[in-house]
Amino acid sequence: MDTFIIIPNVNKDDNLEVTQLLIHWLEVNQYKIILPNHVAQSLNKPYGADLNSVYKEADCAIILGGDGTIIHSARELAEYSIPILGINLGHLGFLAEVEKGDAVHTLKQVVKGHYSMQKRMMLDAHLCCDESTKKIGHALNDIVITRSRSLSRILRFKIYVNHTLVNAYSADGVIISTPTGSTAYNLSAGGPLLNPKDEMIIITPICPHSLYSRSIVLSKEDIVKIVIAQDERLIDQDIMLTIDGQEGRVLKENEEVLITKSKYYTSLITTGQNNYYELLRKKLGN
Predict the structure, then answer these.
(1) φ and ψ at residue 265, rounded to 5 degrees
(2) Report field, pTM of the whole predicted structure over 0.70
(3) Domain 3-115+271-284 adopts which CATH fold?
(4) Of 165, 153, 178, residue with least CA distance to 243
């Protein structure tokens, strides 16, 4: 690895302290550095760039922040197959296994080749309308459909898997999750935990109005289609699709949602410091 993009969350890295430590080490050891323009200007460094134009040049992206910061960057980096080294400046840190005090030490190990790579499955979301299909994004964690304003109203929808009806639901919404996202909204909604190295799709209704609605775990090859009841579309037009809780789009009349495994993966660098099940106990255990 010769070229490193450093993407810090400036709200979490106080005075860009950890970012500056990493830059100093890379400078001393003569590695090429790329920074977002606003970070380079703040630190008076000559490495600033419009990241979208230089992603192809990078061998590694160092992301400093919490899981939300990494998830946001992962969607941009996935199509370039750039591995991510996550430095945890947040709380849970499921995706960033490296704590800030170990940042430079871990970077030294990475450049020596003392690391492994975890490939994390992603999902694609498509909108289908009038026999046309349009991709609207890919997700590392989940794709969620809920109401955006009328929170007291139940959403009625049908779920199809491989074009076969699974069930009709009355619920607050539905979460379609990856194994990586199983510890996020899916977990809060009572869904199952999966090992993030697996490749499966989880369907979890949100607060279903039923005694028997449960999560469904599908294979990576399955195709999920969600059809909102027609009368629901005429009420307030407030049905929202969100990707990783960070990007949103209001669903329009006659649109259906198609969700499939993405051809893209998020590649996470790991130094083997944490076993996944140890991490679960550490982060979620009482």
Answers:
(1) -125, 155
(2) yes
(3) Rossmann fold (3.40.50)
(4) 178
Selecting among 13, 14, 67, 236, the annotated active-site residue is: 67
Tokens of 276: 């996944």
Tokens of 142: 């989940």
State pLDDT tens for residues 187-232: 999 999 999 999 999 999 999 988 888 999 999 999 999 999 876 5
- Domain boundaries, given as residue ranges, for the chain: 3-115+271-284, 122-263
Take residue 163 and report the two structure tokens written for it. Answer: 């074009």
Distance, CA of 120 to chain centre: 10
- In CATH terms, is domain 122-263 a member of 3.30.420.10? no
- DSSP annotation string for 65-101: E-HHHHHHHHHHHGGGT--EEEEE-SSS-SS--EEGG
- Strand, coil or helix: what is 199? coil
* Residue 113 burial (10 A CB sphere; 0-12, 13-18, 19+): exposed
CA distance 266 to 264: 7
13-18-20-22 Cα dihedral, nearest 10 degrees: -140
SS3 19: helix
Q: Is there a catalytic annotation at residue 67? A: yes
Of 106, 72, 83, which Cα lies nearest the Cα of 1? Answer: 83
